[in-house]
Amino acid sequence: MLAKLQSDSIAVFGAGVMGRSITALALGRGVDVVLVDVSDDVLRDARAEITQQMRHGQLMGAFPAGRTPGTLTTTLSGEDATDAGVVIEAITEDASLKARLMAEISRTIPAGVPLITNTSGIPIAELAKSVRRPAELAGVHFMNPAYLIEMVEVVRGPQTGDDAMAAVLSFLERLGKKTVVVRDAPGFVTSRLLHPMINEAARIVAEGTASVESVDRLMHGCLGHPTGPLRTADLIGLDNLADALRLLAERTGNSTFEPCELLMEKVRRGDLGRKTGRGFYDYGEVLS
From the CB of residue 161, how many other CB atoms can be counted at a distance below 10 Å? Predict the structure, then answer.
């Protein structure tokens, strides 16, 4: 039985784009968060951006009116996460780095604490090989910005236990999320559909068929895509997208999923999207 489900705090490992967004979501719902990273500078920037995101979330009506926000603690030590009721891994989409971190987390947190990986497409069965208690591991694919997008994709690995699934779903309900549970597979559902679409949109631009703006306008106006695939790519982070596409190509054996040259050009230049101020669009200034 998962014993710590009533804990008032969670731990988030990784203070990058998704770690910050998930943290803002939890804080806005009154949940205390311990945010762990390896860099003081990253944590300082994260704290400032999370404050901005919470203001944005409040303006957008994303948080319950009158709810007292949770308390944010930032730390360089995973040992400070041992009292958390749920632990979320939210580092970059690199299978070896995720596996190494989750092995460390698994050695530290007590038995009975659900461990969530925020992977966008690495099979849970693969990551489960690195943890001591694979029955307590599940995938939750939060979309960015996590504090605004209401639905999440929940991935049940082959070894994920009933207690862990119940705990994870209960936690997500507390965060105000609607959930869809899917089976484990490379890319799951959302990444398997979205990331190749973005890749193909970038190829269309590279071939000169249409501009970035035209592709997004057509996808929005004709097919109802909320922002267009290339503006969405900038929000995801082009480096994260390229990593996810490579992983998808490797694990499915489908070479058409390899990131296209235009996408890789932008990554090599450091034009990674909104977080660097420029990607497919120019945002005018670097966003922390």
Answer: 18
Residue with tokens 């994870």: 168
Q: Which of 192, 218, 213 is nearest to 280 (CA)?
A: 213
Tokens of 232: 């969405």
Report the predicted TM-score, pTM, of the whole model to 2 decimal places. Answer: 0.90
- In CATH, the number for domain 190-276 is 1.10.1040.10
Which residues sit opposite 60 in a β-bridge? none
- Nearest Cα residue to 163 out of 111, 233, 222, 238: 111
Q: What are 13's strand-pairing partners? A: 36, 89
Q: Of 29, 143, 163, whose CA–CA distance to 154 is shortest?
A: 143
The ranges assigned to domains in the chain are 9-183, 190-276
Element (H, E) at 73: strand 72-75
pLDDT digits (tens, 9 = 90+) for 146-165: 999 999 999 999 999 999 99
Helix, strand, coil percent values for the chain (each to nearest 5): 50, 15, 40
In the block, tokens 């998704």 appear at 18
Q: What is the pLDDT of residues 255-288, one digit of tens each?
A: 999 999 999 999 999 999 999 999 999 998 654 4
> Tokens representing 186?
């490379």
Contact indicator for 44, 15 with CB cutoff of 8 Å: no
Whose CA is closest to 14, among 84, 85, 83, 102?
102
Element (H, E) at 23: helix 17-28
Query: Quick one: what percent of the chain has pLDDT higher than 90?
Result: 94
Fold of 9-183: Rossmann fold (3.40.50)
Q: Are 93 and 139 in contact (CB under 8 A)?
A: no
